[in-house]
Design goal:
3-stranded mixed sheet; elongated; alpha+beta; 77 residues; single chain; 3 strands
């Protein structure tokens, strides 16, 4: 299926769904094919743990901050 760029803008979500389900979608401008709309295929496996040892979480991470509480709730005196 060849779709003009302006039509693709108006119906992008439908075209993405159709391409995801295997239909070949070509987006053209002035009758000239520009791009193929295809589903994303990951190029490799995700590597877990890349940030291991690089982040530290402070001990008081879950403690409430009185200044922030005052910004949200006002001065409750």
């Amino acid at each position: 299926m060849i779709v003009n760029l302006s039509e693709a803008k108006a119906h992008l979500s439908q075209l993405v769904d159709r391409a995801y389900h295997g239909e070949q979608i070509i987006i053209a401008k002035h009758g000239l094919a520009l791009i193929d709309l295809v589903p994303h295929k990951p190029t490799g496996k995700r590597k877990l743990g890349q940030l291991a040892g690089k982040l530290t979480v402070p001990d008081d991470f879950l403690e409430e901050d009185p200044v922030i509480n005052e910004m949200f709730y006002g001065n409750a005196k």
